[in-house]
Amino acid sequence: MQLTEIAEDFEAMGIAVVAMTYDSVEMLKTVEEDQGIEFTLLHDEAITHVNALGILNTDYEPDQRTYGVPHPGIFLLDTEGVIRAKFAEEDYRDRPDFADVLEAAAELN
């Protein structure tokens, strides 16, 4: 997971790294252990936040195993929880360019 490789860069700027997914809590624990992830992983119960943020990938139907998959993205929030920058992709195989994310984070910091 590329985010694990740059999490320390964010933390050096005083920025907390948190990842959120629709995966089960059990799956998150497994991934955390297998990948050595040290930042917080959150389970989006009933894809509440995915829907609230408008990032649900509508290529999947509610009866499919992959329903709930969001479009991949990164949000930079201020200390009040206000989204200050958003990086998103349409295809689940693509990820935002982390160099751009780090640059934006440095500018917000």
Spell out the key features of this protein.
single chain; two-stranded antiparallel ribbon; 109 residues; two-stranded parallel ribbon; globular; alpha+beta; 4 helices
Account of the 3D structure:
The longest helix has 11 residues, at 2-12. With 109 residues, the protein is α+β, with helices and mostly antiparallel strands. The mean pLDDT is 88. The protein is globular. It starts with a helix and ends with a helix. Strand 3 (73-77) and strand 4 form a beta hairpin. It has helices spanning 2-12, 25-35, 48-53, 98-108, and strands at 18-21, 40-43, 73-77, 83-88. The strands form 2 sheets. A two-stranded parallel sheet has the order 1-2. Strands 3-4 form a two-stranded antiparallel sheet.
Largest sheet, in brief, is: 2 strands, parallel
Name the structural class.
alpha+beta
Total DSSP E strands: 4
- Count of DSSP H/I helices: 4
User: What gross morphology would you assign?
Assistant: globular
Mean pLDDT: 88
- From the alpha-carbon coordinates, what is the Rg to the nearest angstrom? 14 Å
Low-confidence blocks of residues:
none
Assign a percent range to the helix content: 25-40%
- Main sheet: strand order: 1-2
Q: What is the CA–CA distance across the termini? A: 24 Å
Order of helices and strands: HEHEHEEH
For this structure, the quaternary state is single chain
Portion in beta strands:
15-25%
